[in-house]
Amino acid sequence: MSEEEVFAAEDFEAMLNESFPSGDGFNYFQVGDKVRGTVVSVGDGTLLVDIGQRSEASIAMEDFTPEELAAMKVGDVIEANVVKFAGGATVLSRSIGGRGADMSAIRMAKEADLPIEAKVTGHNKGGFTVEIGPVRGFVPISQMEIGPALAPEQYIGRVFRFKVIEAREHEAVLSRASLLRQEMAEERGRILSSLAVGQTVAATVVKVEKFGVFVDIGGGVHALVPVSELGWHGRDEILGGMEPGRELNVEISRIEQKDGKPRISASLRSRQDDPWNSIDEVAREGMTVAGKVTRLMNFGAFVEIAPGIEGLVHVSEIAAGRRVRHPGDVLSIGQRVEASVRKIDHAARRIALSIKALAPVPEMTVPEVDPDAAENAAIIARYSPSAPKQEDAPKGETAFSLALKKARLK
Length: 410
Fold this sequence. Notes:
Layout: H1 3-19, E1 34-42, E2 46-50, E3 57-60, H2 66-71, E4 77-86, E5 89-93, H3 103-112, E6 116-123, E7 127-132, E8 135-140, E9 159-167, E10 171-175, H4 177-194, E11 200-209, E12 212-216, E13 222-226, H5 235-240, E14 247-258, E15 261-267, E16 288-297, E17 300-306, E18 309-314, E19 336-345, E20 350-354, H6 371-383, H7 399-406
Parallel strand pairs: 3-5, 8-10, 18-20
Antiparallel strand pairs: 1-2, 1-4, 2-3, 4-5, 6-7, 6-9, 7-8, 9-10, 11-12, 11-14, 12-13, 14-15, 16-17, 16-19, 17-18, 19-20
Helix pairs in contact: 6-7
């Protein structure tokens, strides 16, 4: 049978399918229709799919990635397009390409919004030249990737899937970027529909900010991990260790809609052990602990006494014998200090510390004074019109000590 006779037979089958009444319980399709079917058999190089016709449709395994095939099993539902009718059976594909592709197939792919396979053969200033079987095509450089394109030589000789933008008389203009966006949107919808609070997902860091890290959880869906949720301790250090491309496992903590767009928050900390579960091994009231100053606020200084456990030294508990206006006048971030544990509030997860409590108490020295002379000084301080007044005494002196000096006893 010649090629023309084969095409004529296929056209006859298509017309015959169209002429069947729809009330017999079977589905009838046209070339280009998108269908959903259930995998009934995984054969050698071919999948058989039940799409509601008298016989199963077939689709080549080449239409699927190795990862998809590894997960494929009987009962799975797939989507594909009708590309032709052969031998009484429907042939499906997720793209058009190969030696049998021609301009009519390319036009059909454009009308059916069906991807088409093409091999990149060269490049010029404006883009890339491709081959779709015997047909030449062109891909503008802006249509090769969603973002910046790779070096041109990295595309030469490779086969990609494209969408047909324009089907001219003898050539086609293709776009890979539009297909990538479409596939990303489909993946995004699938991910969002299956996402739930408490779910752990694989993520890739895409952007690092002072307030947190943005991660891609698949299909271009981004989630924010706030800096407070990066870990229980050393948040600044953890943030410094984050960089685009790093892979993480995060737990979804919140999903909400704002202006019709999903806003997703995630946590890395929730997947780690809570250090407060072992607080009794770290600190007890009255215990002396050592730690590092992590933050300085107007009201005090925070000191990390164990990974993920911080205590507050109130500004009034920083130094003994002097008034501290701001913790930064005495302490600096990163400084190692010792402090006494004043109070632990387990419910509020707060620890009150005191550096002042560990400061040595200065010894008081009392000069030896002749009792009679001291009595005279007391009389002078009490009754003499010229006796020193307390308000006249310099800082650190008392009226009594000035009287002693006046009596030349000190």
